[in-house]
Design goal:
- Chain B: It comes from Bosea psychrotolerans.
- The structure holds 2 protein chains of 2 kinds.
- Chain A is built from 9 helices and no strands.
- In chain A, helix 2 runs antiparallel to helix 3, helix 3 crosses helix 5 and helix 6 packs across helix 7.
- The termini of chain A are far apart.
- By secondary structure, chain B is of the alpha/beta class.
- Chain B has one domain: P-loop containing nucleotide triphosphate hydrolases (Rossmann fold, 3-Layer(aba) Sandwich), CATH 3.40.50.
- Chain B contains 9 helices and 10 strands.
- In chain B, the strands form 2 sheets. A 6-stranded mixed sheet of chain B has the order 6-7-8-3-9-10, sandwiched between helices. Chain B has a 4-stranded antiparallel sheet with strand order 2-1-4-5, covered by helices on one side.
- Chain B is globular and about 55 Å long.
- The termini of chain B are far apart.
- The N terminus of chain B is likely disordered.
- Classes of the chains: A mainly alpha, B alpha/beta.
- The interface between A and B is medium-sized, with 22 and 27 residues.
């Protein structure tokens, strides 16, 4: 074991690694926003009462949850241009992350919606609110509150999954690290530092999720 | 000669709710068997009967929380159909209070009261809040306006639920066992609120086993069993001279505890 640690390449590459962290957070944020839209929209569609729509949502969830993310992102990146849709790596990554996270979010949010008592919905209907208003104004917030821990851990997973986007050379931490590593052959140092960066980002996100919870999703319960 | 002023019929003669041969099934189980019922404006009806007799189902048909298979229901002249426009119109006229209060836990008491008026009646926040405060004051709970439902007792929550329904300016109030989920010491405050509402002339249908309340405010007591109206009579007749054996048996069971 004559390996001597040399962090010089990491230190030299620090500005680009830190900038790449922002790239990662950007992908994660975009993916999360898309995932929550797909998640909430998917649950509404699933419960819309139209059978074909319901099956479409179920099929979408099953397709995404039972195929590898790497394949999904390749598919979007390489297959869509054949259909005339050409996207850059970064928007492709955001769409892939959003679709993937959205499928999981549909299942998670649906669980939350099912935990809301029928009486809540009936009270809203009896007050003259429409079905969609009842969902949006009465069901959604308590449902999100009920499943918030599952949803946020899914979003942390989504953030870490951004590293797979290096496969299509999207701008994010892992792809930048790969470049520095291949220039310097300092694998241990580079990926050690990157591991730390991912850890810090996850921790930061957890803090932010906690703040969002106490600001928007907390109210007294029995 | 079509524009001559006609004297409106006396308020108490106008049918506010009419149910004609209403039938409802749950699968193969017939929950309502040809219900005919006419409720005049301002009339107070107490509905009682053993559990599973269809009394809750009956009032839940009036605001279409339950669909029914046969017959017709008219509320204030609006014939309830399966289309959302008549359902909306009827729900605007009919307030409902539930056994389990069903307040929205993520909204304050005031927000519980203003949500529907702002969304369905398009009231501005100021107007909706003024109405809500007036009605919360009427159910004597204004000081709790900024609390959340979980911070209130059951009786307080049910009074808020009554105020919330009243904020929509309903012409009819339906009560579905409003005191059944309450601790005994909280029953009175809710009943007092309902009595006050009755005295102000609200048309009310109450599913309840509170026979003291029935004696005090009901114009008619209706006894249901197996999805049918078995007997209906003013309370003084209903309690002293029930004519059907099932009514007698039911009264025997329910009054024994009092």
């Amino acid at each position: 074991m004559n390996y001597t640690l040399d962090f010089l390449p990491v230190i030299d590459g620090l500005p680009s690694l830190l900038a790449a962290c922002l790239g990662t957070l950007g992908l994660a944020l975009g993916g999360m926003i898309l995932a929550i839209i797909i998640g909430v929209g998917g649950v509404m569609l699933r419960d819309s009462g139209i059978r074909q729509v319901r099956w479409l949502v179920i099929a979408f969830v099953e397709l995404i949850r039972n195929t590898p993310f790497l394949v999904q992102i390749y598919f979007i990146y390489f297959a869509l241009p054949l259909a005339g849709i050409r996207l850059d790596p970064t928007p492709t990554a955001i769409i892939a992350l959003g679709i993937n996270g959205g499928a999981y979010a549909i299942e998670i949010i649906r669980g939350g919606v099912q935990s809301i008592g029928k009486g809540q919905i009936e009270a809203g209907l009896a007050l003259g609110l429409h079905k969609t208003q009842v969902f949006r104004l009465i069901v959604l917030k308590p449902a999100l509150r009920a499943i918030y821990p599952s949803l946020t851990s899914q979003f942390i997973l989504l953030t870490l999954t951004t590293s797979v986007a290096s496969a299509i050379a999207a701008y994010e931490l892992t792809s930048v690290a790969q470049r520095i590593e291949s220039d310097s052959f300092r694998s241990f140092e580079v990926y050690g530092a990157v591991t730390l960066f991912y850890l810090v980002m996850s921790w930061l996100l957890m803090r932010i999720f906690g703040l969002i919870q106490s600001r928007y999703l907390s109210y007294p319960v029995k | 000669m079509t524009n001559h002023a006609t004297t409106p019929p006396a308020a108490t003669d106008t049918p506010m709710i009419v149910m004609e041969s209403v039938e409802k099934w749950y699968g193969g189980f017939k929950a309502l068997t040809g219900i005919n019922l006419s409720v005049r404006a301002g009339e107070k009806i107490v509905l009682c009967g053993p559990s599973g007799s269809g009394k809750s189902t009956l009032i839940r048909c009036i605001n279409h929380l339950e669909a029914y298979e046969k017959g017709a229901i008219r509320v204030d002249g609006i014939t309830l159909g399966d289309d959302s426009s008549t359902i909306d119109a009827v729900r605007r006229e009919v307030g409902m209070v539930f056994q389990n209060f069903n307040l929205f836990p993520h909204l304050t008491v005031l927000q519980n009261c203003t949500l529907a008026p702002m969304r369905t009646l398009r009231q501005g926040r100021k107007e909706a809040e003024a109405t809500a405060r007036r009605l919360l004051d009427r159910v004597k709970i204004l000081e709790q306006a900024d609390k959340y439902p979980a911070q209130l007792s059951g009786g307080q929550q049910q009074r808020v639920a009554i105020a919330r329904a009243l904020c929509m300016g309903p012409k009819v109030m339906l009560f579905d066992e409003p005191t059944s989920a309450l601790d005994p010491e909280m029953v009175k405050e809710v009943l007092d609120t309902m009595v006050a509402l009755a005295e102000e002339g609200m048309t009310m249908i109450c599913v309840t086993h509170e026979m003291g309340f029935a004696r005090q405010v009901a114009d008619r007591v209706i006894f249901m069993a197996s999805g049918e109206i078995v007997e209906e009579a003013p309370p003084e007749v209903f309690f002293s001279k029930p004519s059907h054996a099932r009514t007698k048996q039911f009264l025997g069971e329910i009054l024994r505890g009092h």
